[in-house]
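Pasting as-is:
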Amino acid sequence: MSYSAYLFDLDGTLVDTAPDLSRALNHTLARAGRGDVDESLTRHWVGHGVRAMLEAAFRHLGIRAEAEELEEHQAALVEHYAAHIADHSLPYPAVVETLTVLAARAPLAVVTNKPTELSNRLLDALDLARYFAVVVGRGSTANFKPHPEPTLYACENLGAAVEHALFVGDSETDVLCARAAGCDIALYRHGYNHGKDPARLGADRVIDSFDALV
């Protein structure tokens, strides 16, 4: 099927960001006087925002923290991550080649729960920003995924009808967002799906490689 726009989640879909997020998380835990957590755990916690990732790590380690303390740790995590946002993060295989082909066919957007400023910084660092006409991150809209507003906002700014767009993501959050907005959804099997089988999340298609999109 031909689409008039393509919308992409960022972490776990376009880019494997877990290595740098894991290092930022462990830097923050060290400040709190705790040891590291394995990157494999971080991969299960990515996708719901930095605060949720930090809270998951604290729960895992049995750390109790008041809201004010969590805010302080979150700020430290974001500061460290922003300074090292693409030290080890890389686009998944075939992403660059696929974006090159798709961008010649239709406008592209990023729709992510990552803060917009961090999203733009990551895309710039990896030379991916040139492919996207719109970047919708946390803070761009009043609501964030799985609410449909980010997807609807992206399509509006691309000048594309949402029912003719394809959302490409990696998690149940992306499926719920796409379904609520009224567009098709494909899931990348090897992203951050929080331990859930992508084939059981209700997507129109599950892809093993970005080559499948072209």
